[in-house]
Amino acid sequence: MPFLSWFIPSFRGGAGALVRAAVFFLAIAVLTGAATAEPAEAPADAKAPTETATEAPMAPDAAAPSADESAAPAAEEGTTPAADEAAAPAQPKMKNMRVVYLGKKYPEPLPLSYAEKEITDKGIQGARLMLKEANQAGNFVGHSFELIEEIVPEDGDIVAKAKEHLANGERFFIADLEPDDLLAVADLPEAKDALIMNIRSSATKLRQEECRSNVFHIIPDYAMRADALAQYLIWKKWPKWFVIRRDTPEDQDYLAQVKRSATRFGGKVVDDKLYDLPPGARNLDSGYQQVQSQIPMETESAPDHDVVWVINSDDDFGDYLMYRTYLPRPVVGTQGLKAIAWDKSYTESGGMHFQNAIPRLANRTPVERDYTAWLGFRSLADAAMKSGKVSPKGVKKYLLSDEFKVEGFKGQAMSFRTWDHQMRQPIILGGGTRVPVSTSPQEGFLHPTNLTDTLGFDKPESKCKFK
Amino acid sequence: MTRISLATACATALLLSAAPVSAATIFVSNEKDNTVTVIDSDTLETIDTIETARRPRGIVLDPSFKELFVAAGDGDIIDVIDTNTLKVTRTLDSGPDPELMAIDPTGKIIYIANEDDSLVTIMDIESGDVIAEVPVGVEPEGMTVSPDNKYTVATSESTSMAHVIDNATNTLIANVLVDSRPREAKFTADGKELWVSSEVGGTVAVIDPKTWKITKKISFEVPGVRPEQLQPVGMDFARDGKIVFVPLGPSNRVAVIDADTKEVMEYILVGQRPWHGELGPDGKKYYVANGLTNDMTVIDVDTLKPEKSVPVGRLPWGVAIMPGKPGAAGDKGKRLSACPDAAANEMRRRFRRQHRA
User: Fold this and answer.
1) CB-CB: which of A23, A27, A133 is closest to B158?
2) What is the pLDDT of residue B116?
3) Rounded Cα–Cα distance for residues A10 and A329 (Å)
4) Given A13, A353, A411, which is nearest B116 (Cβ)?
5) Model-level pTM?
6) What Rg do the C-alpha atoms of chain B give, in angstroms?
7) pLDDT for B328
8) CA Rg, chain A, in Å?
């Protein structure tokens, strides 16, 4: 019964067996109580002052009564066969939301360090954590959640799988997909009214020319990352950046955004150098000796600069730069000081909760994609519970409303930009250090409505046109 | 040198304790320093600094003011400080990551939010035995007991709910969804309203305990201050419950709300990132801890003006206040013994500092 065990964590000594037993039964009572206590169901009549309060304390609170199509979700619930996967014992009166995690086993770059283990379950662990937490919360207010895990092999047909789920009536998706696959799924006619949370791709085109009205971006794009770092470098008065990079499509995208940030904030890309030594094997015995003499040579010819901005999405040389450059300069970018949505060093604003919860589940420290998957699921779950709706239409409306303020350990509410569906969020600057260096936006970078909109494409610059 | 200065401090303390009658003692938990600063309300001078376990945050006094409870989140225990001797006399095994606590009006039971375990631990204060553990939402934080001792309310930061526990059965009877990241919950003195602050949501919800429904949501607005910085955290009723002080975190302000009309009357500029405060025993001053400026602002309750800023430890978090002075709680004989104790405490602290460095 793993389900129960979440609710009954460790008992400490001193209490005695009696207390233990009592607590155990109490926990069960709470569980079954919450499960059966006739909750939710009637958000429509929530307006009527429920005098018989003791009878229905579990009903969603005053936030709910925005009575509209409450019939729609109820009808939709019936459409799918009972493909339930042990999320919770059947609760006819619970409002249920099923979320499909769509992923593909793309070949991922190996960590440059030979000692670092390859992580093969990035993202899904965050979604699993949220499933647990969403049900923990949902139980109290008459909502239940299910997670359907669909991760296809590298050569698998993700579009066919997506079609299957759509045919089953699924409309809520967490997409752990690269841009082409993401767009292929999003453009399916039957996915028109679906909600797809992009937790993986930072490609700017997905927020710009190739934006889709059924796609929401939890993960920051390259423009936000470049801006987050640029603001800090400008604040530090380090405006001259020496870019050294590979030339993958991701790298080219990131480079364009670094140049854009330079223009926006008054920085300058003094040189753009392609690093063309082949990646080869990872760290080898005494291999550092070669690296030690190579890197100074590679960085020697650059004009005067304040920092080295490395762009190396494949993670096959960036870390070699640190402490080895010709001039003693800090390294920022995809290695060194990174702009990221989550980092293993981040502990603020309740962040320790996430840092502790993922290892319990996954036996490893959390990575950025665990966080974006967690937050994507959380956005859907929060919207369902707060709006009382589980229809795609109702949830989408709430996600894009001013009411939607999701909490994700960043010390301020996060929401979606209506013009491109990018989640506005503070960005952590850290990665190469045991404690985070800073969080952007930086002090002094102003915006008329939202400081976080100084990161990435603001409304006037947006090229996104939803059809 | 040390001996002389301690003797002087001792003499000063004795002299002062003979002086004003309105004297109170202010305790401030310093999250970063692992200490509690003890301040004399008359002189606003630090009279002692008590070492605690790591990361002290929640800080409450028992109803008789004999013991001070300090939740040490990173130490996974609650330090119990004797307010007479200013020494940690015992610890409570609170379970992991305790943050805020509430003590029932009888002073017998303590309710502890275990942030990392999604539990409310209900404990017998005297024996330290766990009476029950109630599973609540993710990241429980705020705790409060209703004045009639019927209910205990816990807020869960991540789940965004106020969970109501029936104190007779120690079971949940209601769960109220509020705005994001609820921090503190407080009942009005007559028990007719429950107030819950939502830090990230930027609102205070007023809940009717008859129905456990939200009857009013209060939001904040300051020209020139970004809405996301107006983050209500603590809440303290003053002027016999007619007004409520609400420290607003990163906006560096304390809001004052008319408890009757639920309108914001005033925003008082204080130090940086105020989270929690406390009213003096005579109700004339409000003391608020400013996390980022390492100080405490004294606000006059009548004029609603900040009067003074008092330096405390690093990252001050919460404030608790007792009437009288350490050593004055019991009979007069005890007062004399208080001084060497405080002095010893100070010496021990210095010793540890030196040997750590």
Assistant:
1) A133
2) 76
3) 49
4) A353
5) 0.79
6) 20
7) 54
8) 24
Give backbone dihedrals phi and psi of B288, rounded to 5 degrees, phi first.
-125, 135
Alpha carbons B255 and B219: distance in angstroms, whole number: 10
Burial of A1 (0-12, 13-18, 19+ CB in 10 A): exposed
Q: What is the mean pLDDT of residues B156-182?
A: 94
pLDDT of residue B23: 87
User: What is the overall mean pLDDT for chain B?
Assistant: 87
Residue A417 DSSP symbol = -
Proportion of chain B above pLDDT 70, given as a percent: 85
Question: If you measure CA to CA, which chain A residue comes closest to B202?
Answer: A413
Cβ–Cβ gap A19/B177 under 8 Å: no
- When CB atoms are compared, the residue of A64, A137, A412 closest to B228 is A412
B71 compared with B332, residue with greater pLDDT: B71
Q: Mutate which of B32, B133, B204, B230 to disrupt the A interface (most A C-beta within 10 Å)?
A: B133
- B178: chain A residues, CB-CB within 8 Å: 61, 63
User: B184: which 2 tokens?
Assistant: 């503190």
Residue B248: name the closest of B261, B236, B234 by CA. Answer: B234
For residue B289, is pLDDT > 90? Answer: yes
Looking at residue B169, its pLDDT comes to 96
To the nearest whole Å, the CA of B129 is away from the closest chain A CA by: 5
Query: Which residue numbers in chain A have pLDDT < 50?
Result: 1-91
Question: CA-to-CA distance for A22 and A18, rounded, in angstroms?
Answer: 6
Q: B353 CB contacts (<8 Å, ≥6 apart)? A: none
Which element (helix H / strand E) includes A233?
Answer: helix A222-235
Kindly report the nearest CA distance between residue B201 and chain A, in angstroms: 6
Nearest to A137 among B115, B159, B211 (CB): B159
Provide the number of CB pairs (under 8 Å) joining chain A to chain B: 145
Average pLDDT on B247-252 reads 96
Residues of chain A neighbouring B202 (CB-CB closer than 8 A): 405, 413
Euclidean distance between CA atoms B330 and B319, whole angstroms: 23
Q: Which amino acid is at B198?
A: S
Return the amino acid letter for A361: L
The pLDDT of residue B22 is 66
Q: Is the pLDDT at B330 greater than 60, yes or no? A: no
Rounded CA-CA distance A431/A440 in Å is 14
CB A114, CB B135: distance < 8 Å: no
Rounded to whole angstroms, the Cα distance separating B84 from B341 reads 9
Residues of B in contact with A135 (CB under 8 A): none
Q: What is the reported pLDDT for A189?
A: 97
| Residues of chain B positioned with their CB less than 8 A from the CB of A140 | 137, 159, 161, 163, 172, 175
Q: Which residues of A touch B139 (CB under 8 A)?
A: 350, 353
Residues with Cβ within 8 Å of A246's Cβ and at least 6 positions away in sequence, in order, are A274, A275, A311, A312, A313, A314, A316, A317
Chain B touched by A361 (CB under 8 Å): no
pLDDT at B357 over 80: no
**Nearest residue on chain B to A413, alpha-carbon basis:** B200
**How many residues does this entry show for chain A?**
467
Nearest CB neighbour to B175, from listed A10, A141, A353: A141
Both structure tokens of A390: 């589980």
ipTM of the complex: 0.74
Q: CA of A15 to nearest chain B CA: how many angstroms apart?
A: 5
